[in-house]
């Protein structure tokens, strides 16, 4: 077990699901580098690089509000999937893709420091010739035959990204949030169970349980292929591993297939998180509209205020 069971993460989540997730990557020094700095008006966008393992470095965008009086809250902004493997961090900071996915940009303009790295298989971490191929199944399969899982690698990368935030003097280490749409919304349910430094998470249009994923119109994403896990566990069990003070907003669309059983999941989450879990249900599909984002940002603001 790596330091994910130590000060930076939950030993409960690792212990509860360790037999399914496999070993964690070994932690290494961050060795951070700043690659560029761009004035974006209300904030400065930095591109940074840091080590996640001895063999791999990750690049991420860090958006830093101007004129902050002291250390400010930070939000980890996880990008969507959408089978756009050429996109990742660039979409959530508004440099490419869907403007409705630019929540790292909007949160920075609202006063949060945001971090937006590429997940494995996306944008700069997609090793196909034109970055368009779905390499995630290769990344998953080659780990599975070695007794590892892609999800563990992804969770490790998120915690290393939070490590990087903690290394910055302008980040308040007690006020770290997480937000994601679709794939990012799924990770918003897993990451706080393994890293208790996350005190507020927004899961938008990504709360479909395993039990509802065995249909041809949904299926399983490579990152969530965890041998044996769903025989006796589901997302309710993951949420039960959240930190003792962590808050969760489940945000879903009534016509969104990736939000199936959202009401049921929320009802179950109330049993473990109590009034720390909130629910936003919209008469909509798989979208992240300005109204939805405003609700998400208000939730993050309320739960990361000093």
TrEMBL record:
GO terms for molecular function: carboxylic ester hydrolase activity; serine-type peptidase activity. SUPFAM superfamilies: alpha/beta-Hydrolases. Keywords: Hydrolase. It comes from the Bacteria. The keyword Hydrolase applies. One of its GO terms (biological process) is proteolysis. Residues 152-289 form the Peptidase S9 prolyl oligopeptidase catalytic domain. Belongs to the AB hydrolase superfamily. This is Prolyl oligopeptidase family serine peptidase. It comes from Natronosporangium hydrolyticum.
